[in-house]
Amino acid sequence: MAIQGAPAPPPPLEGQIASISGLSSTGLAIPQDAGAASSSIMSSIFGDKALRKCSPYFQAGFGLMGVGVGLTVLRQGLVFGTTALRRRLLVSLEVNNKDRAYEWFLAWLAHNAQSASPSSSRRAESWLRSHQLSVETAVEQRSNGSSSVLFRLVAGPGTHWFKYGGAWMQMKRERETRSMQLMSGTPWETVTVTTLSRDRHLFSKLLAEARDLALRGQEGKLVIRTAWGIEWKPFGQPRRKRPLHSVVLDTGVSDKVEQDVKAFLQRRQWYADRGIPYRRGYLLHGPPGSGKTSYIQALAGSLSYDICLLNLSERGLGDDKLNHLLSNAPERSFILIEDVDAAFNKRVQTSEDGYQSSVTFSGFLNALDGVASGEERIIFMTTNHVEKLDPALIRPGRVDLSVLVDDASPTQARTLFTRFYGGSESVQQEVVERMGQQIEELTAKEIRKGRRISMAALQGLFIRSDAQDSVKTLPELFVERRT
Q: Which of 5, 79, 395, 439 is the most buried (most CB within 10 A)?
C-alpha cells in the first residue's frame, strides 16, 4: 500500500543510463525516434556494413592527428625552451663595420691567428684554423717615391671559433650583399661574438686589447687618410714621423708657422668666449720643390697630428660631400689640399663618359667658412701660383696665414749641406763647415745672376754625391728664374 506524500523510488540503473544517453550535449532530451531516424539515415547512405568497416580508419585518423598535434606542441616547447636557455646562458656582442672597433677586432684576430700558428714560437691564445679568409691589401707610399704592398689575411664571412681568457667564443662575420652603404658603396658587415653569460666581462677586455694593438702600430708614426666616399680611411701603413728640423726652410719661416699653430691650439676657450668659429687656415705658396708638403708632414708629426689628404678633383666629390668631409674630419688631424690653384681651372674630361669634377668654387668657399661649415679643424693649402688664386679664397677667415716657401737661399743651402755631411767619419767637421761656406757663397753668387735652385734639387744632389763632388757639381744645377 502506497503512503501518500512519500517520495517515489529512484528508477533502476538501466533507466538512468537510458535517460542520460537520450540527452544531447546541450542538456536537451533527444527523442529516441530522432536517434533512430539519424541512425537510419546514416545506414541508408553508407549502409551498416560500411559504417562498421570504416570506423577503424576514423579511429586511426584521429590517432594520427593527435600524434601530430602532440609532436607540434613538443617541437614548439623545445624551441621555446632552447631560446630561453640560450638567452639565459649565452651573451652576444655585435660590432658593425661603421664602428672603429670593427677593424681593430679583425686585426686582432689576424694577429692572434698568426701567433697561434704551428711555426710560431709562442701561442697567445687558442685558435681553430679557419678555412674562410679575406685579404686586406695595404699600400705604403714612402717619401722618396717608392712604395710597397702588404697583404694581411683576416677572418672572412662565416663562423670562426677561438679561445680567449680561458673561454671559448664563437665569431660570426656576416655580409649583407643585397644592400650597400649609400655613399661609399661598400656592403654592410657585422661581426657577432658569442660566449657564455658568465664570461661577458671578457668582451671589454678583448676590445681594449684590440684597440691597444692597433694604436701600438701607430705609436710614433704618422697616419695618412684619404676621402673614401663620405668617410676618411687610412691610406697605406702608418709612416715614421719626420723630424721637423729635417725640413730646412728659410730663416724664421718654420718658427712662424709652428708658433701660430701652437697658439691656435691653446686658444680654444678664447674663440668660444668671443663667438668666433674655432678653425684656422694656412696657405703655403712657392715654386715646386721648395718643401711645402714636406714641412706640413713634419709639422703634423711633431704635434702628434695626422694628415687628411683631400683631392678636390676626385670623381664623385660634390659640394655636399665636401662639406660633410670637412665637417667630420678626424680629431687631431690636418686637412691638406694640394695645388689648390689647379682645382677650378680648365677642368677637362677624365673618362670617356665626359666626367668633370662637380665641386664648385662657391661650394668650396662655403665649405671653408659658410653657415654649414664645421669647426675645430686646421686646413693647409699649397699652391705653386698664388697669383692665380681668387681673392675671395685667400681672404682672412679662409686663409688666416699665408707664407712664402721659396727656392733655396744661401743660408738654406749651407744648412742642408752641413746636415747631410756633418758627423761623417770620412770628412772632418771642420772640413764640412768650410765646404758649407763655399756652398753658401756659390748659391749667393748664382742668385745675383738671376738664377735659382730648388731645395729638392739640392737634396737630390747631396744624396747621390759625396761632399767634394757636390761642391763641384752645384753650379750646373742652377736654372734661370722665371719672371
A: 439
Task: State phi, psi for 136 to the nearest 5 degrees.
Answer: -120, 120
Contacting residues for 109 by C-beta, under 8 A, at least 6 apart: 154, 155, 160, 162, 171
End-to-end Cα distance, the chain: 154
* Residue in this structure with the C-alpha cell 687618410, named with its chain if needed: 225
**104, containing H or E segment:** helix 100-115
Query: Other CB atoms closer than 10 Å to residue 230's CB: what's the count?
Result: 16
Report which of 114, 137, 135 is spatially closest to residue 124, judged by C-alpha positions: 114
Strand partners, 188: 176
Residues 344 and 361: their CA atoms lie apart, in Å, by: 7
In contact, 454 and 290? CB cutoff 8 Å: yes
Inter-residue contact 359 to 376 (CB < 8 Å): no
pTM here is 0.66
172 touches 65 (CB < 8 A):
no
What pLDDT digit, counting tens, does each position of 33-91 carry? 544 444 454 455 445 555 455 556 555 666 777 778 788 888 887 877 777 666 678 88
Q: Is 206 exposed, middle or buried (0-12, 13-18, 19+ CB in 10 A)?
A: buried
CA–CA dist 450, 478 (Å, integer): 10
Report the residue count for the chain: 483
Distances, alpha carbon 472 to alpha carbons 433, 477, 480, in Å: 16, 11, 19
H/E stretch holding 232 reads: strand 231-234
Pairs from 172-180 (Cβ < 8 Å, separation ≥ 24): none
Rounded to whole angstroms, how far apart are CA atoms 458 and 291? Answer: 11
Phi, psi of 262 (to 5 degrees): -65, -40
CB 322 within 8 A of CB 367: yes
Q: How far apart are CA 113 and CA 125, in angstroms?
A: 8
How far apart, in Å, are the Cα atoms of 48 and each of 56, 64, 280, 326? 14, 25, 103, 92
Contact 139, 149 (CB under 8 A): yes
Write out the three cell numbers for 449. 745672376
User: What is the C-alpha separation between 56 and 110, in angstroms, rounded?
Assistant: 67
Element (H, E) at 468: helix 467-473
In this structure, of 28-37, 133-142, 153-162, 455-464, the range with the lowest mean pLDDT score is 28-37
Residues 6+ apart with CB under 8 A from 406: 250, 286, 287, 290
CA distance 72 to 68: 6
Q: What is the mean pLDDT of the chain?
A: 78
Q: Considering only CA atoms, which of 109, 168, 161 is closest in space to residue 134?
A: 109
